[in-house]
Amino acid sequence: MRQEEISIELESILELLLRHGKEKVGEAATEIITQAISFKQAMTEELAMYRCFWIPFRELYDQTSIEATEEEPCGGAVFCIFPGLHRKIRKEGTTRSVCVVKAKGAFHCAFTETDQETV
Amino acid sequence: MGSGRGPIKTEEYYSSNFEALGCLIEKEAVKLSKIHKNYILPAPHVSQVLDYISQIGALGQKCSDLLSAEGISAFQNIYSQGKFRILLIRHIITLFLYERVFDPFAFGISRELSDCLKHVDKDVMLRGSPTSKVLALIVQTVNSPMYYSYTKRTAGALGCMQQRLLDCVRKRFL
After folding, report:
1. Is the Cβ of B5 closer than 8 Å to some Cβ of chain A?
2. Statement to judge: residues A41 and A54 lie in one domain
3. What is the structure's pLDDT at B124?
4. Could you give the CA distance from residue A18 to residue A15 in angstroms, rounded to a whole number?
5. Contacts of B63 in chain A (CB under 8 A)
6. Among A26, A40, B83, B101, whose Cα sits 20 to 30 Å from the Cα of A34?
7. What is the pLDDT of residues A9-60, one digit of tens each?
8. Residue B99: is it exposed, middle or buried by C-beta count within 10 angstroms (0-12/13-18/19+)?
9. What is d(CA B157, CA B32) in angstroms, rounded to the nearest whole number?
10. Distance, in angstroms, between B170 CA and closest chain A CA?
11. Domain carrying residue A54
């Protein structure tokens, strides 16, 4: 799959979700995809073994690898809003992972209060 | 004397660029969300969105199932409130990027080849070389009609890149 193809695919999803015109979402989709692919390509060439990780649904908050949208996260994760990045380290025959960037997530309690529309 | 196989870029490069991408998604989600203040997404549109999400790999299928299970009104409720709508947009963009860009072994290669290379990677990390089971899986994948049709479809630069990757694996381990 090529960069253009996935930019168009993301554009279609955003268009469907947000009911905006192609121009408005197209610009955002292209910028996001360009940055993401450039990052991924650097990561693939790298020997230090960087890997992205996802917060699964209902995963409990872990302060070592997750940054929550709310100050006191409770309940399981509802949405992973950005993946985390960890680096694998191989030393003396064993492999361990070190969290380089924490994944961001919205937890159950974030959705219990109704929001006063400000945005 | 060093092996010359040190890191290409610093950890700082990865952390700052990755965080910058997260900020870009947040900024775009806020910007794109603004116009929908107090907007209720019509039910047929919700179904369309859920259908589309279900096609974004295994995570998309799971996300769509979970959102569907809560019912269309729950989705509309999330969508109608600014803070939650932004979280939803960020979640969907992220899910898409994770499935299409970040999770595969390398961008642009087939899912089958990506899985094979991940197995090689895992074995190399654990044992120093891949197991015969993983090597057999690579041979099976490369010889499969599905892989053949994929490489035919993605001719050109991408096909060459895949071929180079496979050649590396063959040369090193087969």
Report:
1. yes
2. no
3. 72
4. 5
5. 57
6. B83
7. 999 999 989 877 777 899 999 999 999 999 999 988 887 689 999 999 999 9
8. buried
9. 34
10. 18
11. 48-119
